[in-house]
Amino acid sequence: MQYDLTKPNTGRTFDYWLGGSHNFEIDRQFADHIAQQWPFIRDQVLGERKRIQDFVQKFYDQGMRAIVDFGSGLPTCNNTHIAAHKIDPKIRVVYCDIDPITVAYGHEILEGQPNVLFLQGDASKPLAILDAPETRALLENNRLVGFNFLSLAHMLTDQQLGEAWRTLYDWAMPGSSMAVSVPAKEWETNPYMNRLVQSYRQVNLFSYYRSPAEFEKLYAPWKLTPEGILACNPSEIPDGDKTKTVRITYVMTLYKE
Ligand SMILES: C[S@@+](CC[C@H](N)C(=O)[O-])C[C@H]1O[C@@H](n2cnc3c(N)ncnc32)[C@H](O)[C@@H]1O
Q: Is position 81 within any domain?
């Protein structure tokens, strides 16, 4: 596949921050520009990948042998199938991303690997992914599934998010689970953090940020595990002459009874 190397790509930009080798000069320039404004970005994305390992282990411990990862980015740097196949190479993993370049590059990276596939699709319409013949064949119609919905919620409106999560709930068997991270409202309200949001807007990447009160009403009837909603990646950011601690992302595991 020919890549448009005049524009940065989100999946490859993430790969660069994660220390991967699947990125080009245009991605590295954009990633470095973002990192100048938000020096915590590498620690943040590395922490998020570490959490994928923990979520995958929890899915496995609770009997799930199939994972569907929405808005996955590139399948590199300890992404879901790598984490899953360390535990059990028979775990089936379906990746989905809306970006055709990420998906095409993902196909090259995954070529010949068993028990994993990558489909292009919109997480706001998840049935197209779940009911695709390739997914049905790989999952063998198993609906006891762990869903990853990580660093994606901010790319969907409330209506899209509420409908997507409800569709996943209705499709999944009881016992299924969903790992979710939601970027915090502070990205919108804090001027230091909002500079980064504006940089993304300049490359036409729009995003929506939420407080727990705003996203809690979107995930019913999924249930929250007793661990609750964890505020992760607190960072010390400049605030006048001092620094202050801000919340960056909320993380939680939901389940269907
Ligand atoms: C911030 S990255 C997160 C990657 C990965 N989930 C992680 O946590 O490292 C978001 C990814 O979601 C994809 N994306 C954005 N909107 C989407 C949508 N509506 N459906 C599916 N994927 C989407 C982007 O192309 C990008 O690869």
A: yes
Is the CB–ligand 1 distance for residue 70 below 6 Å? yes
Domain count, the chain: 1
Please report whether residue 17 resides in a domain. no
CB 190 less than 6 A from any atom of ligand 1: no
Decide: 135 and 68 in contact? Cβ < 8 Å: yes
Name, in order, each residue with C-beta under 8 angstroms of 213's C-beta and a sequence gap of 6 or more. Answer: none
Regarding the beta carbon of 14 and ligand 1, being less than 6 Å apart is answered yes
Please give the model's pTM, rounded to 2 decimal places.
0.94
Task: With beta carbons less than 8 A apart as the criterion, state whether 153 and 216 touch.
Answer: no
One-letter identity of residue 254? L
Distance (Å, whole) CA 45 – CA 31? 12
- Mean pLDDT, the chain, rounded, equals 93
